[in-house]
Amino acid sequence: MTMPSGSAGAIVSIQDYNKTFDTNALTVTPASGEKINGGAADGPLVVVTEGQGLTFIYVDSTVGWKTVHENDFTAGGSNFISATGGTVTTCGDYKIHTFTGPGTFTVTNAGTPTGSDTVDYLVVAGGGSGGGDDLGGGGGGGGFRTSSTTYTIGCGPAAPLTACVSALPVSTTAYPITVGAGGAGVNGAAQGNSGSNSVFSTITSTGGGGAGGGNSLPVGNPLRNGAPGGSGGGAGFYQCSPQTTGGTGNTPPVSPPQGNPGANSTPPGARGSGGGGAIAAGSSGSGSVGGAGGAGAGLPNAMGTSGQNCGSYYYFSGGGGGSGDCGPFDNGALGGGGDAGPSGPGTPGNGTAGTTNTGGGGGGAGGLAASGNLGAAGGSGIVIIRYKYQ
């Protein structure tokens, strides 16, 4: 809209009566040569808050139109939650806020029990990275925590993790959102790095554990073991005592569990083992074959369309694959888990990174008596919030 030419004492009021400014922003432009709130001449004001109302009084040529009153129409009588933040989409009567990086979920109206006053959530932490060469384990999937009050999961692939988990009540306030980064990849003789936590309100999901390093580390070095986390990292190469172990999952413990352990090595001569996933532990390397990552958890499309797609579900927090001398090397789990790097003379042995915004663990480094092969990075996490808005 364009404001009329100003005269001292003139009043103009606007109101988002249909509560759509958050998806259809209003640009208020002063008449030629005039100002709004003392800004630049001809400078517009963009209103993006759902239900926003503003009242302006024209003061003089220095200030122009001055905002003297603001109100929030959504807070006056709506029985439903209204909020801003992240990427906002709709699914029937529900709004979905997706955060693929840090942000703020701001509740402008907390609603009532007769409409809505709770939100469902998915909070996925960053995945751990794979172990470095030679024959590293797979990174653990990031912690996976969710509720399913506003949509039906039935007997789907994340059902065990949503049983009896209630949606969260919200108040009219700003909730900082933390989206955990995946653990950074490692070159050469090293244990993988653990992922970072993701946080919404009272829900914290723990980063996936870094995987155990491979044969380039001395025998018995504790960095051949997987690290604990939301899901644990898989064990690295094992040939002589002591046996290498996978990291524990669901660390620190929550109920339902946020993840599973990475696999131990299986003597004799085991290769890299798989990292744990949201609904299954990693698999041990056996003989010359690396272990597969543990399966991630799948949610219906109604919870949002970010994740690794498989049919009518999107999967998160899959474990990364451990590397072996023989294939297959496509052993990262559904849910963003990265594949292990191959092994063989002259073959680049870099693992595959976990998929971005799934919390998948990174694949372990391969190689054959080589050095510098990459234990791949874990995938970053994600936070999704869903509630009834009409």
Beta content comes to 15-25%
Biggest sheet character:
6 strands, antiparallel
Query: Please, how many helices?
Result: 1
Low-confidence blocks of residues: none
Shape estimate: elongated
Amount of helix:
under 10%
The average pLDDT is: 89
Q: How many runs of DSSP E, i.e. beta strands?
A: 21
State the separation between the terminal residues, measured CA to CA: 27 Å
SSE topology string: EEEEEHEEEEEEEEEEEEEEEE
Based on CA atoms alone, the radius of gyration comes out at 26 Å
Number of separate structural domains:
2
Polypeptide structure, described:
The chain is mainly β. The chain folds into 2 domains: 66 residues, no CATH class; 310 residues, no CATH class. Helices cover 1% and strands 24% of the residues. It is built from 1 helix and 21 strands. Strands 7, 8, 10, 11, 12 and 21 form a 6-stranded antiparallel beta sheet that branches. It has a 5-stranded antiparallel beta sheet with strand order 6-9-13-15-16, with no helix packed on it. Strand 15 and strand 16 form a beta hairpin. The protein is elongated. The two termini are 27 Å apart. 60% of the residues are buried.
Q: Which characteristics define this entry?
A:
single chain; 390 residues; mainly beta; six-stranded antiparallel sheet; five-stranded antiparallel sheet; 21 strands; 1% helix
Give the secondary structure arrangement, pairings included:
Elements: E1 11-15, E2 26-28, E3 45-47, E4 52-58, E5 65-72, H1 73-77, E6 82-84, E7 87-91, E8 94-99, E9 103-109, E10 118-124, E11 144-146, E12 168-169, E13 174-178, E14 186-187, E15 198-200, E16 203-205, E17 297-300, E18 308-310, E19 313-316, E20 374-375, E21 382-388
Antiparallel strand pairs: 1-4, 2-3, 4-5, 6-9, 7-8, 8-21, 9-13, 10-11, 10-12, 10-21, 13-15, 14-20, 15-16, 17-19, 18-19
